[in-house]
Every structure is written in structure tokens, then in C-alpha cells.
């Protein structure tokens, strides 16, 4: 089912079966997607990295994630574009920026507990019912239902990310850091830049992250650089030098040393390995 209007707002809701792969892969600019596995298991390869979803797990993706492969028994998918609902402009309503979407590094996966399953199921049923309406209030209702889905998911993810150890304002700083890294990782590789944008010192930022995770801010920046580097090596025809320059490295040797320290092989060796795997 698809909702659209003359202002280019688009919301899509699907009950998926294994023949619907083309629907999943048809991602357009500014699309946000979440896929809810309703079968026993769902296997995906995203940017050459395998992911496995168990029953009642949801994965959250942006237009920048490339799905290479997907196999599943049954699933539900919601896809919406920025004109329909901008998670950045409406962050105060949902709090998903830098958490469910634009999280800088790992792809978020939410596990629906038995205690929360009825909330998700009811939301889905109302969602599907509302898609069949056509009055002037339909878009407002669909946006409200989308927000409810996102808020339910944010609550679960905040618990899994140990956000209960910090207050709301500290959680907002972490989410904003993640979002800023997503926007600026190619130009700014140092924690000091992001700390200044948040009006904090690098030490304060590091101390805050240590309360919820063993991953320091610098690790998050480096991991995001590596995600883009691998993606460009795997999918583009750019030379290693061009990729290095795109990521803010004027010196290819500096980039190669950084890449090898993270991946264990040089960028050229990495490209050769995956070219041979595809061939």
C-alpha cells in the first residue's frame, strides 16, 4: 500500500513475502526504511556485511545503506521519504536522529519483547487500516502512526544502549554527536571539531560516552570513515587515491596506513580480495 500526494510525500507499507525482493531494493533519494521480520529468520547482506534478524526484530536503514542480498520467509516493511516525515526537523517529537537513523556506525536492530509485541501489532493493524482511507486527515493520521512506531522502537533501543544510565540531555548530546559524525566524517576526523559543535570539551565528550559504552568518540569517527571507504572500494570505480581524497586524506599513504590498521590489509588488497570473490 502506498500513500502519496502532490507535494511528493510518500509512505509505503508492505506485508512482504520472498517474491517481493524488488520492492525492498527499490530505494529512492531520502528514503528511510524499517523492516520487521515476522518469519523465523531473515538474512541480509548490507554493504558486504551479513546481518541476521530473528523473529520480531526490526532493522532501520537509510538511503545510504546498500542491500546486496536478502532472504526471508515473511516480513513487514515501512518506507517513507523526507517530504513525508523528516526525522531531523521533527527530532523533538520522536528522538530518533542519531539513534534509529544516521547513527554513524552500526545499523540499529530492535528486538520486540513479548511485553511490547501487542503495541507493535496494534499499531501495524491501525496503520494498514488507515492506508485505505482517503479523507483530508489521512496524512496527519499516518504521520502520527509512524511517529508511534518510531517512539516504541526508540524506547527499546535506548534501553539496549544503556541510555538509562544518563539523563535526557546527555542522551541528546550523544545522539547529536552521532548525527554530526554522519554529516562531517569526510571533512573532520578529530574529536575536537565535534566537541566544539556541541559546546563541550573533548574530555567531557569522552567521559560521557564511557558511561554507556566502551567505544570512544574517536572510534566512532574512525568506524564511520571505514564504512564509507569499504563502500567506495566495493561499489565504485574510483581509484584508491580518489577515495582517500574524498575522505579528507591529501596523502594516500596516510589513508592506506589508517585503512590497514583497521582492516588488516591495504585498500588495494581489500579491493582485489572482493573483486575475486565476485568474479
What do these coordinates show?
With 279 residues, the chain is an alpha+beta fold. It has two domains: 2-160, Jelly Rolls (Sandwich); 168-278, Arc Repressor Mutant, subunit A (Orthogonal Bundle). The chain contains eleven helices and nine strands. The strands form two sheets. The protein has a six-stranded antiparallel beta sheet, covered by helices on one side. A three-stranded antiparallel beta sheet has the order 5-4-7, with no helix packed on it. Strand 1 and strand 2 form a beta hairpin. Helix 3 packs antiparallel against helix 4 (138-160) and helix 5 (168-184) packs parallel to helix 8. The longest helix has 23 residues, at 138-160. It starts with a strand and ends with a helix. This is Helix-turn-helix transcriptional regulator. InterPro entries: Homeodomain-like_sf, HTH_AraC, Tscrpt_reg_AraC-type_HTH.
Gyration radius over CA: 20 Å
Order of helices and strands: EEHEEEEEEHEHHHHHHHHH
β content, as a range? 15-25%
Q: Please tally the β strands and state the result.
A: 9
Which range best describes the helical content: under 10%, 10-25%, 25-40%, 40-55%, 55-70% or over 70%? Answer: 40-55%
How are the SSEs ordered, and which strands pair?
Layout: E1 2-4, E2 10-16, H1 21-25, E3 32-37, E4 41-46, E5 49-54, E6 57-62, E7 67-72, E8 75-80, H2 91-94, E9 109-111, H3 114-130, H4 138-160, H5 168-184, H6 191-197, H7 202-210, H8 217-235, H9 240-246, H10 252-263, H11 267-278
Antiparallel strand pairs: 1-2, 2-8, 3-6, 3-8, 4-5, 4-7, 6-9
